Amino acid sequence: MASSPSPHESLPTWLGPIAAHLKTSNIHQDVVDSVEDIFGILQERERVRTQLHIQSRIQRLAPSGTGPEVDPVGHYSTASASQPQNIRKNRYRNILPYDRTRVIAGSTQSGGGRGDGRYINGNWVKERYGGGVWIATQAPIEGTFHSFFSILYHTISQSTLPPGLSSYVPANGRVHTVVQLTTFSQGQAESYFPQRPGTSLEVWPEHGCPDPPFRITTKKAEEESLRESRWQESTVTIQPQSTSSASQPVDFTHLLYEKWPDHGVPDSKDEDSLLAFLRHAYAVNHSLSQKANPGAADAPIIVHCSAGVGRTGTFIAISSLLRAYGLLDSRSAAQPQAAVPQSNPNPQIPKIPIDDLVAQEVDSLREQRLAMVQRETQLQMIYQCLIKAFRQRVS
Q1: Which among 23, 53, 259, 265 is least surrounded, fewest beta carbons within 10 Å?
Q2: Measuring CA to CA, which residue among 395, 268, 391, 390 is closest to residue 327?
Q3: What stretches of the chain adopt beta strand conformation (E)?
Q4: pLDDT tens, position by position, 226-263
Q5: Phi-psi domain of 113 (left: phi exceeds 0; alpha: psi -120 through 50; beta: other)
Q6: Does residue 220 contact residue 284 with C-beta atoms inside 8 Å?
Q7: Is this model's pTM higher than 0.85 or not?
């Protein structure tokens, strides 16, 4: 069984074969072949999950629990996403959230529990090795803006969390940070908040939701840069349009990384800026979380690209391994973490190399949200960024 990462290791032995052939921006063909083989195993396992997911849609199974005996079909059910009133809320018809880990958007009238609440195309995701918790979503589309902002406005209800996550998410905490990995262009993401400071827009709830509309105001927007890459940091206010004295405004921080193409990866020269951006996102969220709830665990971060799986999954996987090895921040040195239970969708499919933590991490993410880390180049970049982070620490 793979051992827990130690923050004191200069380089894990399992990374050695890849690190030995990493030369500037070129990777030795043996490494490419190795990554290709690993990606093939991951894809075969995902193919089995997809078949079970499709079977669950055909059988119209209800969402299942996660007890000791798991129904292999219901385990991958996306029944909520397939409801007639929710189909139009999905950006892509083939990227749907699993019922057992889906995010329940809050409401002033929510009754509590996994069966209540409003639909959004997003999943709760826990890092296998780093232990951090994220909300992985698609980029909000019109008609879902209010639900998206509700996740940020309302405190997190423990009763709506998937089984096993409550101990990792601060009670009555609130999400403070949104990370966006795609630009507001080419149909990848709608502009769901004002881009100019001092401007506002009004967002109305979906039909049947009793909540008041939100006024969304951008208070501040700044650009940070590293070499040729840059990201934008905005402070945004959510203000319910209600006469109730309890309807106080809530701020969140939006971080936009602009150098990650759809279905691809940043150029090798941008990897440094991506690592810097990831650490910046961690620092921002830590500061906001501790200001709101001193001493508690940091709040989850919402992260999205366009579909919320390729770039999003890659970003979370890098974060997990950096955190596990103490490479994310001085506070992120590894501590024993309970790994996400791994399902065995079919005992006859190839097993993941047990000593390859990247492969194990990606497969764990795919257990929680469909299609995480979509492309072989994205898998390869996870290895590259991890090796680069180790080398930066040594130098």
Answers
A1: 23
A2: 390
A3: 22-23, 26-27, 102-105, 118-126, 133-137, 177-180, 200-203, 214-226, 229-240, 250-257, 301-304
A4: 666 679 999 999 999 987 766 899 999 999 998 898 87
A5: left
A6: no
A7: yes
